[in-house]
Amino acid sequence: MPEARYDFDADSLLHEDDCNIFDAYENVVESALDMRRKFVMIVDQARQLKRELLAKQAEIDRLNTRDRQELSQYQHSNKDLQKIIQAQSKRLQQNRETIKMLHRRITQSTKDLEAEQMKLDQVDFLRCEICKENIMNVFTGCGHGFCKGCLDDWLHRPAASYSARDEKSCPKCRRLVRESEIRDVYLGSGTTTPSARDGDGITEVLSSDSDE
């Protein structure tokens, strides 16, 4: 008996719609693989972003820690600065009070000096007409006052230092000075009895009691 032969055609078993499904399946598989590659890429990017985020967070934490430390230092420095400012303000107030006190003292000293100057001005007429320092204690007949030492030096100066006309003249007005016209003046309490000048001179006593 002859052997039967069968010719198998696979394409004859697949319908056209089945081929379309197979192509669609292949497309789905390719899309799935492509999506998987994209997903892996996205996961890698996410991991990279996470590492960068952790690094940034660590940097931010470090900066925050540093800022807190600096803020704490600034707060302590601010407290110290406030103490210094308060101390300086207190010292400034004390200096102002001292300046006010010194101004009052200067004002009072100025008034005292003015009062003393007025007293000095009031007694200027008692100064010697020659030296302008000693209190006059003798008067000439022309009414000018001198201290006894200056007048004696003037009247007994060497002859070469004056002319014959000025031999016994007043140092102030050059009027002739006579020994009898020279008067001693005593400024005292009035209880002391002055001795008369040698010769016929007149002794005059000026006392504070006589002014009352």
UniProtKB/TrEMBL annotation:
Residues 128-174 form the RING-type domain. GO terms for biological process: ubiquitin-dependent protein catabolic process. It comes from the Eukaryota. InterPro entries: SLX8, Znf_C3HC4_RING-type, Znf_RING, Znf_RING/FYVE/PHD, Znf_RING_CS. Residues 187-212 are annotated as: Disordered. Transmembrane segments: none annotated. The keyword Zinc applies. Keywords: Coiled coil, Metal-binding, Zinc, Zinc-finger. Residues 46-98 form a coiled coil. GO terms for molecular function: SUMO binding; SUMO-ubiquitin ligase activity; ubiquitin protein ligase activity; zinc ion binding. The keyword tRNA processing does not apply. GO terms for cellular component: SUMO-targeted ubiquitin ligase complex. This is RING-type domain-containing protein. It comes from Fonsecaea erecta.
